[in-house]
Amino acid sequence: MRILGYDVGVIESLIFINVAVFLVFSTTQTNFIWAITNLALTPSDVFERPWTLITSMFVHSRGYDHIVFNMFSLYFFGIYLLQLVGEKDILKIYFLGGIVGGLFFVATSLLFGEPDPSQSAVGASGAIFALGAALAIMRPKMTVFLFPIPIPMPLYIAVFGVMVIMSFISLSGQAIAWQAHMGGLLVGIIYGMMFAKKEPLSGHLYGYYNR
């Protein structure tokens, strides 16, 4: 992909799109309300606006912590996984993880009323969980430092332990769409098992908690 005349990799392109959308729609309350109304994933009207399964992946809350943590996670998981599976498959994992995560969110809302079907979800966490899970399956012993826990740990513990647990804990008072995390996690596990025949590589990956 070419951005401003420069060739940019797939991970950098995804980050650029996410950040650009954030900057456009977080500038004013009016812009943000428009984004939530038209681009966020809302279970009650998902059948009328199915495109929101994708557009919601590129919208983040107005606070900087959401976009910053997600983009750091996308970069560090994505750059390493890209070396293992290539651009085509990493895009499949990213978008399928985000879409399946969104479907999990919709399903629990419409079937069980949790969350309320009128509540919307935004963010790339489902897609990023898919990338993290795929990498954890393929390189489980890789050492990571998961922010804000400055303790080295195997990647599989960071993803399937700490990140999953933190998916159910809100640190900022905002609701967390844990269903989207679980959907993305499932996609990542499946893809990781498909590519797991490759020999493990050693190395360090500095990851950030994504919510």
What name does CATH use for the topology? Rhomboid-like fold
Cα radius of gyration in angstroms: 16 Å
Tell me the number of helical segments per DSSP (H or I, 4 or more residues long): 7
Order of helices and strands: EEHHHHHEEHHE
- CATH second-level architecture: Up-down Bundle
Low-confidence stretches at least 5 residues in length (pLDDT < 50)? Answer: 200-211
Distance between the termini: 27 Å
The overall average pLDDT, rounded, is 87
How much helix is in the residues? 55-70%
| Strand line-up in the sheet with most strands | 4-3-5
Q: Characterize the biggest β-sheet.
A: 3 strands, mixed
Q: Please, what is the CATH homologous superfamily?
A: Rhomboid-like
Got a strand count?
A: 5
Global structural class: mainly alpha
Strand content: 5-15%
Name of the level-1 CATH class? Mainly Alpha
What count of domains describes the coordinates? 1
Global morphology? globular
Structural summary, described in words:
By secondary structure, the protein is mostly helical. The protein has a single domain (2-205), classed as Rhomboid-like (Rhomboid-like fold, Up-down Bundle). The protein is 58% helix and 6% strand. It is built from seven helices and five strands. It has helices at residues 10-25, 29-38, 52-55, 64-112, 125-138, 155-166, 178-195, and strands spanning 2-3, 6-7, 143-145, 152-154, 204-205. Strands 4-3-5 form a three-stranded mixed beta sheet. Strands 1-2 form a two-stranded antiparallel ribbon. Strand 1 (2-3) and strand 2 form a beta hairpin. Helix 4 (64-112) crosses helix 5 (125-138). The longest helix is centred in the middle third of the chain and has 49 residues, at 64-112. The model is unreliable at 200-211 (pLDDT under 50).
